[in-house]
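Thread: "does anyone have the structure for this chain?"

Original post by V.I.:
We have the sequence but no experimental structure in hand. Need at least a predicted one for the grant figures.
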Amino acid sequence: MTTTTITASREWRTGNITLQASALLFGLSALLWAVLLARWLTFGLFAWTPWPVEVFLDAWPAGAAIALYVALLGVDALVILGVRRRRRWARHVGLARSVALVLLAVVYYALSRDLVMALVWLGLAGAQALVLWPSPPWALSWPAALWLGIFFMFPLFLMFVVSLGERSSTGTVVYTFTLQNYARFFGRIGGRFLYLLIFWRSLWLGIVNTALCLLFGYPLALWIARQPERRRNTYLLLVMIPFWTNFLVRTYAWMVILRDTGVINTFIMDVLAWTDRPLRLLYTPGAVFLGLFYGYLPFMVLPLYASIERMDWSLVEAAQDLGASTWRVFWEVVRPLTMPGIVAGSILVFIPSVGAYVTPDLLGGAKVTMVGNLLQQQFLVVRDWPFGSAVGFILMILMLVATMVYFRTGGRTL
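Reply from O.Q.:
Generated one for you, tokens below.
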């Protein structure tokens, strides 16, 4: 083995981690071309069910598919070999191949309308280009970036594409470019802004639940933070105990408590004998409020405790020595110092409260429809995926706004 080869091998193990990332990504694309080529060559033996790309290439001259797959496979193998040997030309060839694959994906989609394969090619080409780009600032974080790109950005982009489509008569998605689904959300149905009313109900429930969690969670977090250190962990454990049980099971437990023959009505009618008719507790907005409050209160308490626990209490003592009242000490000293916890807890409660599905469906009995229930109906019942995707994007904009508020009001210092 030559000195150059030994040095390249050592640099591969200890050098720039983007080398391994680029080799992996080009290896994945080479595997894709190999699979497509193998399927194309063995159609007569195994009678494969043709994929859209194979149907598309079947209309082209004989040998076009083989030439395309062999060329792409050869270029990828060449890039992998050059990258492993740390050849400077490998980066340029890989970038050129990524650009060519992007153009190929665009042309292929324009001719075939096969969105899935086009997105696969675009995703591979984009990831390869980012890794091969000279000195990327995220070189050490490429695994996390790749994971987020595949399992977050790609599904998000796909959902956005679906939201611009239309629903066919059979419930499938017709990929077009229309904003009708977004306009439908803000339009009238039977003379009423039905979807806006559902959205407003979700916002209102989220705001009220956030306010209630803050109202009850702040004193609890403050009390825990002021306890002797040996007791704090015990109290925090009690706050987190509900997380040990599935959220759905805990919601069903509240149904047992609130139903007509449940614990509360049995106690009122049989023990106290206050009435002979059960109180209507379940399947009401109050039951939904109670379920949301119970489910998300720990998400408010924990950030508040983290913020209060590390607060400098000497500032409170100084304010008291200067004659400030208890309320003024809280408002002008304690509140600003714990604002990061307030903001973080509010966001952690508000966002899932607005998009809640299980709680309003079970405790509200489908009588208190929220955005989460609307999404479930559009995707699983009506099978109108384009409109459901549009509703999901509108809800996501709200979450983005809430996150921006979080960072602008002191969340960075949490």
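V.I.: this helps a lot. Strands lie at 166-167, 173-174.
O.Q.: and Residues 3-163 form one domain.
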